[in-house]
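Dock flavin mononucleotide; give full complex structure.
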Amino acid sequence: MILGLEGSPRKGGNSHNLLDTILNGARQAGRETRAIHLRDHKYDPCIGCEKCRRDKICTRLNDGMTLLYPHIQAARGLVLVSPVHNYNITAWMKAFIDRLYCFYDFEDTRPRAWSSRLANQGRKAVIAAIAEQENKRDMGFTLEAMRMPLEALGYEIVAELPVLRLFDRGIVKQHSDILERAARIGKELAESL
Ligand SMILES: Cc1cc2nc3c(=O)[nH]c(=O)nc-3n(C[C@H](O)[C@H](O)[C@H](O)COP(=O)(O)O)c2cc1C
């Protein structure tokens, strides 16, 4: 199973279309997929209560993430797509990633040594970011903001797709070259699992 999540506030926006296309590529390579549009889910950011140290999952907040955790654990393949908002991932994507904190185990040292309970299971991911501007610099930290936490959690990033110069809602549908690249990284992810 490949789980794909996008963090745009815009239904039918560029991230929505790009996620659909990546997952189509994965399905054509024989994988089952599930698409999640984070704007449709109600969840809070991590509040740092550390209750998950004991419970091994977030039990302090009972919200949309509670329903997503089983899908995250079950899917060995992950797709994250975010538009660039102020040089970074969107607030929806950031809150989602922060809520994955419950998958870490920490030691009592300072700073705390840590490991991820999602690691060493052959988990793989692809990430994509979409920006309006034409210079990769205007994408800021968006790819890093997805890559670094996913790698820390134990995912191998098999492909990254930075997309520039797209502003209008859904305009990506007019760019067959970008859609082809998106389908290709979906296929790459499927074949890597
Ligand atoms: C609040 C906000 C902040 C944005 N910040 C940036 C930015 O820093 N750099 C950039 O290139 N585009 C920026 N954009 C433009 C979006 O990344 C662009 O329109 C993208 O295509 C939106 O994708 P979506 O349709 O998936 O939401 C911003 C848009 C919004 C609404």
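Observed: The domain at 2-192 is CATH 3.40.50.360 (Rossmann fold).
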